[in-house]
Amino acid sequence: MKAAFNPIKTVARSCAALLTAGVISTNAFAQDVAVTVPTSFTGTYDLTYANAQAGSPLTNGTAVSVVIAPGNLLCIGGYTLTDPVTRNGNAHEAIWKESTLGIEIALSSLVNGFNEINVGSTSGTWYGQLQGSKTSTATTGCASTPAPDMTKINELFEKAQEKFAQYFPASANAVNQTLDGYIYRAYPGGIYLAINNGDVYVMGGTFGDQPSKQGSLEAILTELTGTQVDIPDIPEGDYKLVVTGTIGTTVAGIAINTAFPAVTIDKIGAPDSSDIDGIRDAVKESLKDINFVGTIDVSEITSTSSDFSFKIAFKGSVTSNGVTSTSDYLLVYNYTKL
C-alpha cells in the first residue's frame, strides 16, 4: 500500500499519469458515435510509450499494461473506462473518454487489427502513443466499476482543508492526483489524504508511513459536514443578542474544536433570565430538526439591569446514509439592552 503514494516507484503510477494530464473540456465539433470493439481485441497488452510530445505525461520508453475486456471495457492504471466511440466517421479508432480527468485513449485499428493506442486530452491535444502487442487473452481484474463521485470527493477535500488545516492546508499545490485507483491530494510534511473505492485514507506525518483507512467517504463526509444549528426564534424587542461558542467534533480519530459562527440579532425580545426551563424549551423548539443525545443544559452566567447571558450545552447528532455523526455544542447567549 505504501507504494500507492510513492512519487518515484511502480510502473502502475506511470499508467495512472496517463489519466491525470490534460484540461477538462469538450470537442465542440466532434461527432461521436457509440462503437462495439471486436472480440478479437480482448486480452492483455504490454505496451511502451513512444513519440512523446511537449507536455506529455510520460517519457519515451515507459512500460504500460492495458487490458481490453468484454463489454467494451478498457483498463489502464487502475481505471476502468467504458462506452467507446468513433469520431467524425473514422471507423479505425475506438476512443474511450475520462471526462473528469480530461483524458482520451484511442485504440487503432478496428478495421485492420491492433496497431497502437494514441493518448491525448479531451481538448484535442495529442500526447503520444503506446506501441507493442497483445501478450495474452487474459482480462483478469478488468471489470465494470462505477465512476467515482467527484462532487463528493472534492467536497471531502474542501471540508478537510477547512476543518483540519493544520494537517491539510489549502494551497495551489493541493490538487487532485491519481495513482493505482486512488484519488488523492498531497500536503506539506509528506501528508496525504486519499479516496479509493469509496473509502478514505490518510498517510504521512502523524498518520504513519502506511495508508490508514479512516472509514467510508459517506461517513467521513457526514462527520466533516457536522450538525447545523439555528438560533431560537425570539420575539422582537429592545435587546441585542450575540451568540458565540464552540463545536467539538471527532473525525477520523482526531478531536477538534471549531468556533460556532457568531450571530448577532438586533431589536429582539429577551426571555426572563430566571426562567431556565422556558429558555431550555425555546432552544429545544428551535433545534427540533436535530436529534439529541442526553439533555440540553442551560446555566446562567451573568445578570444585570442592562444585560445578561447564559450557556447552552448539548450533543447534537445527524444521520446520513445510515451513518450518525455527533458533536458537542457549547453556546453562549448574551443579551444587551439597547
Structure in words:
- This protein is mainly beta.
- The chain has four helices and 21 strands.
- The chain folds into three domains: about 1-135, no CATH class; about 150-225; about 235-335.
- It has helices at about 10-15, 150-165, 215-225, 275-285, and strands at about 30-35, 45-50, 65-70, 75, 80, 85, 90-100, 105-110, 115-120, 125-135, 175-180, 180-185, 190-195, 200-205, 210-215, 235-250, 255-260, 265-270, 290-305, 305-320, 325-335.
- Helix 2 crosses helix 3 (about 215-225).
- The longest helix is centred in the middle third of the chain and has 14 residues, at about 150-165.
What is the succession of H and E elements? HEEEEEEEEEEHEEEEEHEEEHEEE
Strand-pairing-aware structural class: mainly beta
Please describe the biggest sheet, giving its number of strands, its sense, and whether it closes into a barrel.
10 strands, antiparallel
Percent of residues in beta strands? Answer: over 45%
Distance between the termini: 62 Å
Shape: elongated
| Share of helical residues | 10-25%
Strand count: 21
Number of domains: 3
Question: Compute the gyration radius: what is it?
Answer: 28 Å
Summarize the entry for a quick read.
By secondary structure, the protein is mostly beta strands. It folds into 3 domains: 2-136, no CATH class; 150-225; 236-337.
